[in-house]
Every structure is written in structure tokens, then in C-alpha cells.
Design brief:
The protein is α/β, with parallel strands linked by helices and about 500 residues long. The protein is built from 16 helices and twelve strands. The chain is globular, with a radius of gyration of 25 Å. The structure holds pyridoxal-5'-phosphate.
């Protein structure tokens, strides 16, 4: 392949891609101290810039081009109607510092979204500020810490975390100054109850639990776990990354959870990763209400008592842990998630959940007998299925080889090597937005790869063959990050 020129190679002094209008404000010199002597930006025409970015976008595998079965990450389609709402001028041009009486439309959306998220989880309060799931975790754990401290209970510094948890859970606790204690899983993929009991004492701040867990399994003893932790004086944090298996069917609040984060960029179809900023709203039970980050949006009757024209106001709870983010979080994402919920309605959201679970079970059933399924061999999965990329008759083949070969066959690889407790794990989450035909194509590709692994393992070892770059040195890529194109 002839390499297409990089944007710096096309640069030529004086070339411009945009013509700015005449300034209609007085010219003001910029503060000298803030100016850089040199700013090596490429000087290119508009068509060069357009081609540069269009070409870059085609080097990627994304949800708009390929099935993207990245387990736990819920890479569902991002419906375009979400974009229409987010672009409406009244929202897009609103400034967070404008007066509340001219922000009532935006505040209505924030209020309604809070309400929907509280209803879906069965919780009593909501903050929309956190900018990602991990940020939501941090918010929730700080509230748990504040709750114990407010009661003068300073001994509680230990957080229990199952070994199937996402790495952000222990990282969050460490950032919040808590100690983490790892709980093993049993053979059915549940938290080991005996290990839980052995760790419960008056130093427990709480447990961080993911349900369904990252093995794709519903915690069979979740109510018992909640009861035991509460009896020991701890609180229950729910990692809601897997809410795509729960919405409209099961409410964590009714299971006794005290706090839960959502990932709007997973469950509620807002763009993910490079596609846009995240959003990790947090919902809480009654007892954590006073600690919510502020401000949140509350509703009251209008001054003339007109019930049909309520007023939306900002409110900061009395013992608030403070702000977690500037203004009100990623409002553009709130609009998209709100649109998604309004388009589907209660029945539609429930149908999406049921189809997400059905799709994952379809893939699990079709992979059975071809790939090892550590827990799924004996249980139905929820929204994702964890298989293993190791085959008895192809001993040199690893999950990574299978993942890379899938790219040649037109699929973004599933999550691999997570959860950590499953050797050579391939965690597959089709989501409800994949059709039967697409899932069949994916399964056929997986079966072909299993055959290639036996007959021509080198084909897998050398994969990907069709991607713009061959197999990466992933350690080097992580240690020597190069995130932007630089001039030579
Ligand atoms: C994605 C994920 C997180 C972290 O969410 P981010 O939005 O990526 O910060 C936490 N826990 C689980 C189980 C996840 O899948």
C-alpha cells in the first residue's frame, strides 16, 4: 500500500483552509507572556484537512462500520436522532452561566433525566455531574465515606470488592483513601458468601458489586450479600456498567443497593470512547441524599401557584460532598440519553434489555462446544458471554490471536483478558442493536477461526493481515504513547 501523505508533509507556509470574516470587535493585543514563540501547526488547504481526517476515520473500526462486541462496554448503536436533539440551538448555544429563568428548558431536561434514572434504578436521588463511570464510582464512594464520617464512624476504611470487578473499582477506593479487600468468586460465578462473611466487621465501609457481574452472570445471592453487608453496618455500591441487562426488568434500589452509577455512553446510547465525552450519573438511596454533589435540579410550584408551569431550580444538599465537575456535567450527553429514553419509552427500554440478553444467549449457545465457556456452560448468561480463547487441539493459540484474526473478518475484537479471573478470556457483548444475520456472521467467523487455529495457526499468529498496521507491540505502545501526529 502506498502510504498516504501525513498532514505535516502537505504543509506549505501560507496555505490556509478557512477564511475568517472581518473582525467586528476592536483589536486587542494578546498578553505577551501567554504567547508561544513557535506553534508548529501544519498549514494546509481545506481539502487536505478534510482528506486527512476522513482517511484517519477510515483506519478505525467503529460501531458505524463494524459489529463491536466489546463486553462490559456495551457498544450499541448511537441513534442519529440523539444528535438532532443535542444540536437544537436552544440547547447547543445555552451557556451554563445564563440566568435560571432563561434556562428553564435545559433545566427541565436535567430534571426529567434525573427522574428517569431514579425510576429505572428504584432510587431516591440523582446527580448528573460525573463525566464517566469511573468518575461516578469516585463520587459514590466519597458519599459512602461522608455517610460514615457524618455518623462519627471513622473506623470504616475497608471496601470489599469481588475478584471479577472492573479495575476501576479498586482504583476508585484507593483514590478515596480506602483499603480494598478482594473477594473470590465461586464456581457458578457468584461472590463467595463464606469469604464475604469472613471479612465482615466494624471496619467495613461497604461493598462494590457489579450485577450482572463481569462474567455476564446475575449474582444469585445478591439479596443475601446486601443483607449481610447492611447488617455489618456497611453500604452497597452498585457498579451499573452492566445496566443494559437490567433496565425495565430489575431495580437495584429494590435489591437494597445504596448507590449506583450509570454509564450513559454504554446503556443509553451516547457516543463512546473517541466518539464523545462520557457521562456517569449516580443515583442514591434515601440515606445518601444529604451527601449528593450539588447543585442538582429540583422542581417547585410556580409563584402564582400554577401547577402546570412548575419552576426548576438548582439545589445543593446540606452535607454535599461538593462539586464533582464544572457546571452540570456533560449536558450534550444528557440530551442524547434523554432522547433515547423518550424515543423508546418504558416498553421500548424493557424490550431492548430483553433483546440484549437474548442476543448474548444466542451467541453463547452457538459457541458452546466450539470454545470453552467457564461459567456459561452451565448457566444462562445475561447481556454478555465470557468464552475462552484457548482450544485443546491448538495449544499455541491465545485469545489475542483470535481477537486479531477477527479484525481480518470484519469484526472489532471482543474485550479480551478481562475479567482477570478467566484465563484467555474473550468477553462478547452483542447488544440488542445487532441483527440475527450479523450475529450469525460473527459466530461463523469465530468457528472459521477455531478451524484455522488447528490447520494453520501461523495465520492467526500473524493477524491482522488486512488492517493498516500489523500486530502491535502492545507494551511499547502503552509505554511510549504517541497520541498525535507531529512534524518530523
Ligand atoms: C466501563 C466500566 C467501568 C468504567 O466506566 P468508564 O465510563 O469507562 O469510566 C466500570 N465498571 C465496569 C464493569 C465497566 O464495564
Amino acid at each position: 500500500m502506498t502510504m498516504e501523505p501525513l498532514i505535516y508533509e502537505l504543509s506549505s507556509p501560507g496555505r490556509v483552509g478557512a477564511v475568517l470574516p472581518e473582525s467586528d470587535v476592536p483589536h486587542t493585543p494578546l498578553p505577551e507572556a501567554l504567547l508561544r514563540k513557535e506553534l508548529p501547526l501544519p498549514e494546509v488547504s481545506q481539502i487536505d484537512a478534510t482528506r486527512h481526517f476522513t482517511r484517519l476515520s477510515r483506519l478505525n473500526m467503529g460501531i458505524d462500520t463494524h459489529m463491536y462486541p466489546l463486553g462490559s462496554c456495551t457498544m450499541k448503536y448511537n441513534p442519529r436522532i440523539n444528535e438532532d436533539t443535542a444540536r437544537m440551538a436552544g440547547f447547543a448555544a445555552a451557556h451554563p452561566l445564563q440566568e435560571q429563568d432563561v434556562s428553564q428548558g435545559a433545566m427541565y431536561v436535567l430534571y426529567q433525566l434525573q427522574q428517569f434514572l431514579m425510576e429505572i434504578a428504584g432510587m431516591a436521588g440523582c446527580t448528573l455531574q460525573p463525566a464517566a463511570g469511573a468518575h461516578g464510582e469516585f463520587t459514590g464512594v466519597l458519599m459512602i465515606r461522608a455517610y460514615h464520617r457524618a455518623r462519627g464512624d471513622h473506623k470504616r476504611t475497608k471496601m470489599l470488592i469481588p475478584d471479577s470487578a472492573h479495575g476501576t473499582n479498586p482504583a476508585t477506593c484507593t483514590m478515596a483513601g480506602l483499603k480494598t479487600v478482594e473477594l473470590p468468586s465461586d464456581s457458578r460465578g457468584n461472590v463467595d458468601l463464606e469469604a464475604l462473611k469472613a471479612n465482615l466487621d466494624d471496619t467495613v465501609a461497604g461493598i462494590m458489586i457489579t450485577n450482572p457481574n463481569t462474567l455476564g452472570m446475575f449474582e444469585e445471592h445478591v439479596e443475601e450479600v446486601v443483607r449481610l453487608v447492611h447488617a455489618a453496618g456497611g453500604l452497597v455500591y452498585g457498579d451499573g456498567a452492566n445496566m443494559n441487562a437490567m433496565v425495565g426488568v430489575c431495580k437495584p434500589g429494590e435489591l437494597g443497593f445504596d448507590v449506583l452509577h450509570y454509564n450513559l455512553h454504554k446503556t443509553f446510547s451516547t457516543p463512546h470512547g473517541g466518539g464523545g465525552p462520557g457521562s456517569g450519573p449516580v443515583v442514591v438511596s434515601e440515606r445518601l441524599l444529604p451527601f449528593l454533589p450539588g447543585p442538582i435540579v429540583v422542581m417547585r410550584d410556580s409563584d402564582d401557584g400554577d401547577e402546570d408551569a412548575p419552576i426548576y431550580e438548582f439545589f445543593t444538599p446540606p452535607q454535599s460532598i461538593g462539586r464533582m465537575r464544572a457546571f452540570h456535567g456533560n449536558f450534550g450527553m444528557h440530551l442524547r440519553a434523554y432522547t433515547y429514553m423518550r424515543v423508546h419509552g418504558e416498553e421500548g427500554l424493557r424490550a431492548n434489555t430483553l433483546n440484549a440478553v437474548l442476543n448474548a444467549n444466542y451467541i453463547q449457545a452457538r459457541l458452546k462446544g466450539h470454545y470453552p465457556l467457564p461459567v456459561g456452560a452451565s448457566r444462562h448468561c445475561m447481556h454478555e458471554v465470557v468464552a475462552q480463547g484457548k482450544l485443546a487441539d491448538a495449544p499455541d493459540i491465545r485469545a489475542l490471536d483470535i481477537a486479531k484474526r477477527l479484525m481480518d473478518k470484519g469484526f472489532h475484537p471482543p474485550t479480551n483478558y478481562f475479567p482477570l479471573i478467566v484465563p484467555e478470556s474473550l468477553m462478547i457483548e452483542p447488544t440488542e442493536t445487532e441483527s440475527m444475520q450479523e450475529m450469525d456472521r460473527f459466530v461463523e467467523a469465530m468457528l472459521e477461526i477455531a478451524q484455522e487455529a488447528r490447520e494453520n495457526p501461523q495465520l492467526l499468529k500473524d493477524a491482522p493481515h488486512t488492517a493498516p498496521m500489523r500486530r502491535m507491540d502492545e507494551v511499547k505502545a502503552a509505554k511510549e504513547l504517541v497520541l498525535c501526529c507531529k512534524p518530523y
